[in-house]
Amino acid sequence: MDFLNGITLIANYIIIPGLTYGSQLALGALGITIIYSVLRFSNFAHGEFMSFGAMSAILLSWLFISLGITLHPIPTAIMVLPIAIVLTISYCLIVDKFIFKFYRKQNSKSVINLIVSIGVMFFTGGLIRFIIGPGDRNFFDGERFILKARTFKNITGLNEGLTLKTTQGITIILSLLLVILLFWFLNKTKTGKSMRAYSDNKELALLSGINPEKVVLITWIITGTLACVAGTLYGLDKSYKPFTYLHLVLPIFSAAIVGGVGNPVGAIIGGFVIAFSELIITFAYKKIFFYFLPINLVPEGLSQILSTDYKIAISFLILVLVLLIKPTGIYKGKVI
Amino acid sequence: MKKTLISFMLSVSLIFPAIADNVKIGIILGFTGPIESLAPVMAKSAEMAIDEVNKSGNFTHGKIDSVRGDSTCVDAAAAQAAAERLITAEKVNAIMGADCSGVTTAVLKNVAMPNGIVMISPSATSPALSTEPDNGLFFRTAPSDARQGEVIADLLMEKGFKTAALSHTNNDYGKGLAASIQKNFTSKGGKITITASHEDGKADYSAEVAALAQAGGDILIVAGYLDQGGKGIIQASLDADAFNKFFLPDGMIGDSLPKAIGPDLNGSIGSVPGTDSPGAAKYSELAKAAGFESGPYGPESYDAAALIMLAMEKSKSTKSNVFKASVMDVANAPGEKIFPGELGKALKLIKAGKEIDYVGATALELVGAGESSGSFAEILINNQKTNKVGYR
């Protein structure tokens, strides 16, 4: 019984939250990695693109709720996701047409593009605050829980509860679907293969007749989709506040770099590495020891390695370690 | 020479326009930031007191104007800039504010003291402010958290909570209150299983709650802000079923919290400065007549503004360095008791040379270095509303 309680405890506080947060980071890191490998720059505006996607979903779900069109128990924001994705892609394409295209035509160095993307980040952040305001928005509706802790306790008779929020379930399933779709696209379709060729060797790809504008278009469509889904899922699961997406860029970049920049598999692995390290290092293990160790070995204190205040520092720590020890990341970066 | 002199005089008169006769009171509160839902009622309460005095026509020094400034509650630099503007540009004679403990300390130390301006804060409750050097310029109509810690410990013991986890917002207010709760609760035989801070303005508090949950406890004390991390901690605790009873100190009391959290918060308890003296009811009536609902720290704000004006009348001066000596005098016995709505009468009494004892909306009694002795209302969340169920 103690053993089962311990497992439930770990599942409730580490595995489920880690999978959720990891999926959100992985989707974000995928967007960054794809831009990096095809357009060859670090897109710092990605966090704000996610925010833009979430904002579109919020505005649309308000519209649909006021029209009375909802899909209980699924949150309205998920229902309107396709339209929000189209909006986000349009925004990405507009930004590309008026800003990034200019620098691409000039064959600017990637560091210039990086600075440009920081400009885009501030502009987008401002635009979002202008449209929806800086405040906290809770746009979750529908059924809150798939599995409630108390229900779980009643069914199993365990001391520890297991919670599965609807948003957590949706996040994990939707991320999985999106990732499968993306890999199928990149590996099996002609367009996906032409993208990989373009990323591998731009000149050779152009010589063999690949249309560069089409590749760029597809890249932004993929990025916009990933950003919108990741942003909406993060906002649904936690809460939407424009400011927090600025902070989100940091763990996402860590995830992309840890996994190996430019490598989609690496981005996903990196996302989960960052998410689980944050949780594992700041968790207090007192109760787990209580379930797994003989009673006389259970420590007095909380057995917490680092206080939760240092959560954000952990992704930096991992980033620094990876850059020092294995700069290419877990998977060798820069291939798509 | 004569021409030079005349032009000199003219230019001087242009540079220094005649200073307006009106007395000005600056109202510095966090109109934006973590307590933005409380600030409007606080400001309106102070302005209501000023209106009342203006309408009575009994104020010796003429008409009183008020100017608002934004303290932001958390950004000391912004609060100081706001105070600096009110003092140098608007030439206020005194400040009603600031609100949160951190910015209040900053404004007092860096702006009010150098300029010699009286500050009466309605809501800064950090124990550290009791010993902060202030040249006799600082008062507060809210009690120190040292007192609130005592009340909270008593309440928890009476309700039978023997162990509690404690999460506080990572600033002067949170730290001061947490230390006071811990000291009092432990000395009464209770046990605080964990004291952990949380940062405001984050999207996700599940990691913080995970640590709190591992420590366990009968109840979770959330010494934070209702529009900020405090709300996040409660929501995350409920989601993970880590705690289902919460203790809500003053920063967490407001109707927006039970509305946001929903029925799961019913049965939680809290404390907020308040009193069952007839003054509180009279204040509520006045507020209703002025078109707003009484809210947390509204009565304190009314009292803070009233004290400033009564002290000015008493000392026959609008200069901070003169009337600061009269603040304690008008606030405490002996004298005729003054309730909200009787400011005109109080001014008349002072003019006639009689003593007054300002009771106000909060049964005000200034002790120590000029802070309210503190009566607290006991809060019970029921039917998604904050209800006052007792006083101590």
Tell me what you see in this structure.
The complex is a heterodimer of chains A (336) and B (392). Helices cover 73% and strands 1% of the residues of chain A. Chain A is an all-alpha fold. Chain A has one domain (2-325): Orthogonal Bundle (ABC transporter involved in vitamin B12 uptake, BtuC). Chain A has a two-stranded antiparallel sheet with strand order 1-2. The radius of gyration of chain A is 21 Å and the shape is globular. In chain A, 47% of the residues are buried. Chain B has helices at 2-15, 39-56, 76-89, 101-115, 145-158, 172-187, 206-215, 229-239, 256-261, 278-289, 298-315, 320-323, 327-331, 343-351; strands at residues 23-29, 64-70, 94-97, 118-121, 138-143, 163-169, 191-198, 219-223, 246-248, 269-273, 336-338, 356-358, 366-367, 371-372, 376-382, 385-391. Chain B is globular. Chain B is α/β, with parallel strands linked by helices. The model of chain B has no long low-confidence stretch (mean pLDDT 88). Chain B contains 14 helices and 16 strands. Helix content of chain B is 42%, strand content 20%. In chain B, the strands form 3 sheets. Chain B has a 7-stranded mixed beta sheet with strand order 2-1-3-4-5-14-13, sandwiched between helices. Chain B has a 7-stranded mixed beta sheet with strand order 7-6-8-9-10-15-16, with helices on both faces. The longest helix of chain B has 18 residues, at 39-56. Chain B has 2 domains: 23-144 and 277-372, Response regulator (Rossmann fold, 3-Layer(aba) Sandwich), CATH 3.40.50; 146-273 and 375-391, Rossmann fold. The chains are: A mainly alpha (336), B alpha/beta (392). The A-B interface holds A 12-14, 17, 21, 136, 138, 148-150, 161, 163, 165, 234-235, 237-241, 243-244, 278-279, 282-288, 302, 304, 307-309, 311 and B 170, 194, 196-199, 201-204, 206-208, 210-211, 213-216, 227, 232, 239-241, 260.
